[in-house]
């Protein structure tokens, strides 16, 4: 499935034909200075069902088809308790100083 903007930038999502899970999403745009096309993509693999949700345990990011980042999950929790200071930057700074 591809969505196209008025400036021909596009977003493409590739789905598995049987499971309908996302396999890859990519965004393509033209560089305003050099006029060449750039692509940012993210690929999903090694799905496991966690609490009823299919979860990709391997996520690979690409820039112009060169790998720029790869993450491997070993566990996922949905609906778990979140500590009250989870999104408090001051609490994170205090933990780093220890």
Shape: extended
Largest sheet: 6 strands, antiparallel
Low-confidence stretches: none
Count of alpha/pi helices: 1
Rg is 18 Å
Strand content: over 45%
**Percent range of helical residues:** under 10%
Major sheet strand order: 1-2-3-4-5-6
The rounded distance between the terminal residues' Cα atoms is: 49 Å
Write the H/E string, N to C: EEEEEEH
Total strand segments: 6
Rounded mean pLDDT score: 91
Going by helix content, strand content and strand pairing, the class is: mainly beta
Name the descriptors.
98 residues; mainly beta; 6-stranded antiparallel beta sheet
Folded structure, characterized:
It is a single chain. It is extended and about 50 Å long. The mean pLDDT is 91. The chain has one helix at residues 89-97, and strands spanning 2-4, 10-15, 22-30, 37-50, 53-63, 66-72. A 6-stranded antiparallel sheet has the order 1-2-3-4-5-6, with no helix packed on it. The termini are far apart. It is mainly beta and 98 residues long. It is built from 1 helix and 6 strands, in the order E-E-E-E-E-E-H.
């Amino acid at each position: 499935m591809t969505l196209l903007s008025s400036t021909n930038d596009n977003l493409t999502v590739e789905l598995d034909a049987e499971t309908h899970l996302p396999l890859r999403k990519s965004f393509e745009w033209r560089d305003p200075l050099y006029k060449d096309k750039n692509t940012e993509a993210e690929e999903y693999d090694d799905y496991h069902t966690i609490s009823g949700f299919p979860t990709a345990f391997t996520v690979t990011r690409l820039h112009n088809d060169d790998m720029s980042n790869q993450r491997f999950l070993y566990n996922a929790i949905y609906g778990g308790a979140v500590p009250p200071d989870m999104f408090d930057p001051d609490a994170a700074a205090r933990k780093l100083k220890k």
